[in-house]
UniProtKB/TrEMBL annotation, chains A, B:
<dbReference type="GO" id="GO:0004400">
    <property type="term" value="F:histidinol-phosphate transaminase activity"/>
</dbReference>
<feature type="domain" description="Aminotransferase class I/classII large">
    <location>
        <begin position="26"/>
        <end position="346"/>
    </location>
</feature>
<dbReference type="InterPro" id="IPR005861">
    <property type="entry name" value="HisP_aminotrans"/>
</dbReference>
<keyword id="KW-0808">Transferase</keyword>
<dbReference type="InterPro" id="IPR001917">
    <property type="entry name" value="Aminotrans_II_pyridoxalP_BS"/>
</dbReference>
<protein>
    <recommendedName>
        <fullName>Histidinol-phosphate aminotransferase</fullName>
        <ecNumber>2.6.1.9</ecNumber>
    </recommendedName>
</protein>
<dbReference type="InterPro" id="IPR015422">
    <property type="entry name" value="PyrdxlP-dep_Trfase_small"/>
</dbReference>
<comment type="similarity">
    <text>Belongs to the class-II pyridoxal-phosphate-dependent aminotransferase family. Histidinol-phosphate aminotransferase subfamily.</text>
</comment>
<comment type="pathway">
    <text>Amino-acid biosynthesis; L-histidine biosynthesis; L-histidine from 5-phospho-alpha-D-ribose 1-diphosphate: step 7/9.</text>
</comment>
<keyword id="KW-0032">Aminotransferase</keyword>
<dbReference type="InterPro" id="IPR004839">
    <property type="entry name" value="Aminotransferase_I/II_large"/>
</dbReference>
<dbReference type="InterPro" id="IPR050106">
    <property type="entry name" value="HistidinolP_aminotransfase"/>
</dbReference>
<dbReference type="InterPro" id="IPR015424">
    <property type="entry name" value="PyrdxlP-dep_Trfase"/>
</dbReference>
<keyword id="KW-0368">Histidine biosynthesis</keyword>
<keyword id="KW-0028">Amino-acid biosynthesis</keyword>
<comment type="subunit">
    <text>Homodimer.</text>
</comment>
<keyword id="KW-0663">Pyridoxal phosphate</keyword>
C-alpha cells in the first residue's frame, strides 16, 4: 500500500551528504582526513579506570570537565567554549542559531559540502562567491551585504590557508554579521583566528578533535567566541538536547587536551610527511595549491583524476574524488603514515610512467 | 561595546529547557528518572578490551553494530532502526523530518516539555489538547486535522500508560499523519506499540537507553518504524552530521542489548520497588495517577508540593517539581533503590505527621 501521499508531502526531503567510504577490509585509507596516529596515550588509561556504574547517570550537561580543559589550553574563559558532538554538530547548531537573516549567508563555491546542506535544511538563503583559479578566496566578495559568513581555514578540500590579516579584513568589513571560521585543519597550517576573538565579538572559531587530536571516533568539536555568542549557542543546545556529549567523550576529550606535548609531536610528524609528499607529487608531475592541512589536493596534467582514483582503489589505496564542476580533475589525498605514503608513491611511480 | 544589534536581530532566541539538577555532592537523587542500577556487566568488559588506537578513525556512520543488535532484539529488520544521541536527538530529528505541514501538530498540554521547545525551535505550529483531571488523554481530541501527533506512553511526568487499543485507535484516525509514540518508559509499563508497526506505516516508536537500560551517561536512543520513514530520517541525519554515535556508544550499546536477562531482571526490581512505594505513598495520604513508569507523580492534600520539594532538598533528597499551571501541586519522584526509597519514606513519615 505504501505511505499515504499526505504523509510524504510533509516530510523534509534533503539530498544527504555522502561521507567518504569506510571500507571494512584493511586498506590504505587516505580518503577521510583521519589522523594516522593513535590518540594521546592517557586516553587508554582513562578508559581503563572508568567506573562503568556511573553510566546509569546523565552526563554533565555543561560538559565542564572538557570546557575547563579547553579553556586552559586556549587561554580563554570556560564560558567562551561550546562543545558538541563533532564540529559538524557545533557548526549545524551555529547555522540554526546565528543565520536567521533574510539576507544570504556567504561561503565559497568550493568548500566543505555540509554548509550548503545545512543552509538548505534550515532554509537559509545563501550565495557562494567563486574561488579564483588558484582556489583562493577574493576578499572583496565578502564585503557585500550578507546574513553571515562561514569558511574553513585552511579550506577543504583545497588545503589552502589564508593568513590572519585576510581573516581580520573580512571581520573588519562585517561587524554586523557573525563570521564563523571553521578551523578543522588549522593545527597543520599556521596561526588560529582565536587570537582575534578579543577584538571581534562577531567571530566564532570552530575546531575539532577529529584531525590533529586523532579522535574522529569520539565525536568532539567545539566553538570558541565571546561569551554572549556562546550563551546563545547554549540556549539553543539546551532546547535541543541537554545532554549531548556522553561521559566517555568528556573524560577522554579532557585527557587528550591535557597532553600538549603529544599533540604537538603528532602534528609535527604529519607536517613532515606532508612536506615530503609534496616533493614526491611534484616529481611525478602533479600540481597542487600549497597544502597546509593534513591532505593535499592534487591534479595531474596527463591523467584524469577519476582514472587515478579508480586505479588506486583497485590497489586498495583509498583517496577522495568528487565528480563536481571545477574540481573533478583533483584528488584529495590524506597524509598518512610514512609507510602508507611510501606504498602510495610506489604505486604512482609505477602507474605514471 | 557589545555585540552589534544587527547580529543580535538574526540570532534565534529560544527559552531553553531546564534539565533536572545534577548535584555534585552525594545526594539521594530521585529527580531525573535515572536507573538506580548499573548497566549490564558486559559493558565494563567491552570498555576494558577496547583498543583506543581505533579512536583515530570515524565511527561507522550507519551504526550497524548497534542497529543489528536492536533489530535482533525487537525482531525487526535493521533498516527499520534509526539510532541517535539519546532519544532527544532522535525526537528532535523526527520533528525536523516529519512535521512540515501548515497544520498544527498535536501533543498533550501536560507532557515532556521538549516537544514545545522543538516545535518553537523549528517554527512548527502546534496545539495541545488538555489532559482530563485524571491526566488521561481524550482520544477524540486527536481526531482533528493535524500535521502530526506525538505523545509519550507512559506519559511524562504523569506516568500514565495507555493500552495499545488506545494507540491503535489514534493511528486508525490518522492515516495521513506521522504518529510518534515516545516510549522512554514503556519497559516499566506494558506492551510496546512496536507490535503495531507492521500494520501502521505512519507509526514511529522512539525508545532510549537512558532508563531501563541504565545508560543515560552514554546517550543512545532509537526510532523503529517502517523502512521508508526510517530512510527519510537517515537522509536528514546524513545531511546534519553523518557520524553521531561515537565508537564507544556503539560497542557499549550493542553489548547492553545482548544481555536480555540482565535487562529484564533490572526492570523487575524497579517495578517491585515502585509498587511498594505506591503503598507507602498512599499510606502517607498522597494521591497519584497509577504509575507505570520508573517514577510516581504524587500530590498531597495537606502539604504544598513546593514545601515538600524544598524540605526534601534540604535533607539532600532531590525530587522534581515544576512551578507550572495544573501540576504545581505534584512531585515527580524517581524510583530509586530499596535503600534510597527507605530514606525518602523515613523522611516523609517524620515530616507528614
Amino acid at each position: 500500500m505504501g505511505i499515504h501521499p499526505n504523509v510524504l508531502k510533509n516530510i523534509r526531503h534533503v539530498t544527504p551528504y555522502v561521507p567518504g567510504e569506510q571500507p571494512q577490509r584493511k586498506v590504505i585509507k587516505l580518503n577521510t582526513n583521519e589522523n594516522p596516529y593513535p590518540p594521546a596515550p592517557g586516553v587508554r588509561k582513562v578508559l581503563e579506570e572508568f567506573h562503568t556504574d556511573a553510566l546509569r547517570l546523565y552526563p554533565d550537561p555543561a560538559a565542564e570537565l572538557l570546557t575547563e580543559e579547553l579553556a586552559r589550553f586556549y587561554e580563554v574563559e570556560k564560558e567562551q567554549v561550546f562543545p558538541g558532538v563533532g564540529s559538524d554538530d557545533v557548526l549545524s547548531l551555529c547555522f540554526l542559531t546565528f543565520f536567521n537573516s533574510e539576507k544570504p549567508i556567504l561561503f565559497p563555491d568550493i568548500t566543505y559540502s555540509f554548509y550548503k546542506v545545512w543552509a538548505e535544511l534550515y532554509r537559509i538563503p545563501y550565495r557562494c562567491p567563486k574561488l579564483d583559479k588558484e582556489f583562493r578566496m577574493n576578499r572583496a566578495d565578502y564585503y557585500q551585504e550578507n546574513g553571515g559568513i562561514i569558511f574553513p581555514n585552511p579550506n577543504a578540500p583545497t588545503a589552502v590557508y589564508e593568513e590572519l590579516e585576510f581573516i581580520e579584513d573580512i571581520l573588519e568589513h562585517n561587524r554586523e554579521s557573525v563570521v564563523i571560521v571553521d578551523e578543522a585543519y588549522v593545527d597543520f597550517a599556521g596561526k588560529s583566528a582565536l587570537e582575534l576573538i578579543e577584538r571581534y565579538d562577531n567571530l566564532l572559531v570552530v575546531q575539532t578533535f577529529s584531525k590533529a587530536r586523532s579522535m574522529a571516533g569520539m565525536r568532539i568539536g567545539y566553538a570558541i567566541g565571546n561569551k554572549e555568542l556562546i550563551r546563545y549557542l547554549n540556549d539553543v543546545k539546551y532546547s535541543f538536547n541537554s545532554y549531548t556529549l556522553n561521559q566517555l567523550s568528556l573524560i577522554c576529550g579532557a585527557e587528550a587536551v591535557r597532553d600538549r606535548a603529544y599533540f604537538e609531536k603528532n602534528i609535527r610528524k604529519i607536517i613532515q610527511t606532508r612536506e615530503k609528499a609534496k616533493g614526491e607529487l611534484a616529481n611525478l608531475g602533479f600540481a597542487f595549491p600549497d597544502a597546509k592541512a593534513n591532505f593535499i589536493f592534487a591534479t595531474h596534467p596527463d591523467y584524469s583524476a577519476e582514472e587515478l582514483f579508480l586505479a588506486l582503489k583497485k590497489a586498495d589505496i583509498y583517496v577522495r574524488h568528487w565528480n563536481s564542476e571545477r574540481i573533478k580533475e583533483y584528488l584529495r589525498i590524506t597524509v598518512g603514515t610514512e609507510e602508507e605514503m611510501r606504498i602510495l608513491f610506489d604505486f604512482l611511480k609505477h602507474y605514471i610512467k
